[in-house]
Amino acid sequence: MAELKTKPNDGSVEAFLNNVSDPKKRQDSYAVLELMKQVTGEEPVMWGDSIVGFGSYHYSTKSGQEGDWFLTGFSPRAQSLTLYIMSGFDQYDELMSKLGKYKTGKACLYVKKIEDVDTDVLRELVRLSAEYIARYNA
Fold it and tell me: What integer pLDDT is reported at residue 96 of this predicted model?
């Protein structure tokens, strides 16, 4: 089985975020950093070279793959700010309808700029997802 390449490391979150070239994306990244830090009560950790993660859990799949992953996190990507909502979105229809302007993938929330979303709704989404993953994988 292939080993997961994205792992927690000792990289500096602050140095990583300070190197985000777009000033607006850098500012938004710091806003998300504070939001996730407050919601999870966890300190941010670099996962790989481009993801800021909070907390962790151990998972195993039906196929036998196992590993460790973060409860929630984000990455300032070129196209958008990517927030990792590990529980997915299916159970959060009501919250998602109030969130604002975004796109989603399986567990990724794509936001162009923080003003496009209601940060109180985002805070609740991150909280519920992190709690769900922590409880489900306890």
Answer: 98
> Which of 91, 7, 13, 21 lies closest to 56 in space, CA to CA?
7
Q: Which residues pair with 86 in a beta bridge?
A: none
Domain ranges of the chain: 8-136
Looking at residue 70, the DSSP 8-state letter turns out to be -
CB 126 within 8 A of CB 81: no
Cα 27 to chain center, whole Å? 16
Cβ pair 130, 109 in contact under 8 A:
no
For residues 73 and 47, is the Cβ–Cβ distance under 8 A?
yes
Architecture of domain 8-136: Alpha-Beta Complex (3.90)
pLDDT at residue number 138: 61
Tell me the sheet residues that pair with 68: 58
Size of the chain in residues: 138
Spatial separation of the C-alpha atoms in residues 89 and 91, rounded to whole Å: 6
pLDDT digit string, tens, across residues 75-115 = 999 999 999 999 999 999 999 999 999 999 999 999 999 99
